[in-house]
């Protein structure tokens, strides 16, 4: 496993004592390619995770926004049609009249 092999050569760059923290082994013992990997990928894994999230957001933002905007417009259209519906008002009025009649019948 690469992570286990690189662990002694690395240091945690996220903590408060990141600059004073010593490595278990000297990275100069590694080949040039391994040193590059150690410094750019392994020690900066916290950076790459947030960087990938930011890239994903910038790539998908417009399509996600358009999809959400379309759904919101559908909700607005349906709510306006329900608000302006005469037949729905008639049905709700009928339900209200029936409820009022039933309440009046119980009082007698």
From TrEMBL:
Gene3D superfamilies: Formin, FH2 domain (1.20.58.2220). Residues 1-108 form the FH2 domain. It holds the Pfam family FH2. It comes from the Eukaryota. GO terms for biological process: actin filament bundle assembly; barbed-end actin filament capping; mitotic actomyosin contractile ring assembly. Residues 1-28 are annotated as: Disordered. GO terms for cellular component: cell division site; mating projection tip. This is FH2 domain-containing protein. It comes from Photinus pyralis. The lineage of its organism: Eukaryota, Metazoa, Ecdysozoa, Arthropoda, Hexapoda.
């Amino acid at each position: 496993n690469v992570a286990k092999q690189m662990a002694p050569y690395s240091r945690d760059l996220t903590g408060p004592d990141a600059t004073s923290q010593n490595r278990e082994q000297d990275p100069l013992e590694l080949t040039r390619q391994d040193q590059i990997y150690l410094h750019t990928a392994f020690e900066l894994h916290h950076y790459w995770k947030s960087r990938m999230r930011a890239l994903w957001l910038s790539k998908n933002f417009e399509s996600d926004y358009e999809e959400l905007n379309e759904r919101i417009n559908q909700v607005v259209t349906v709510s306006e049609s329900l608000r302006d519906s005469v037949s729905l008002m008639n049905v709700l009025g009928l339900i209200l009249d029936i409820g009022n009649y039933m309440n009046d019948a119980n009082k007698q």
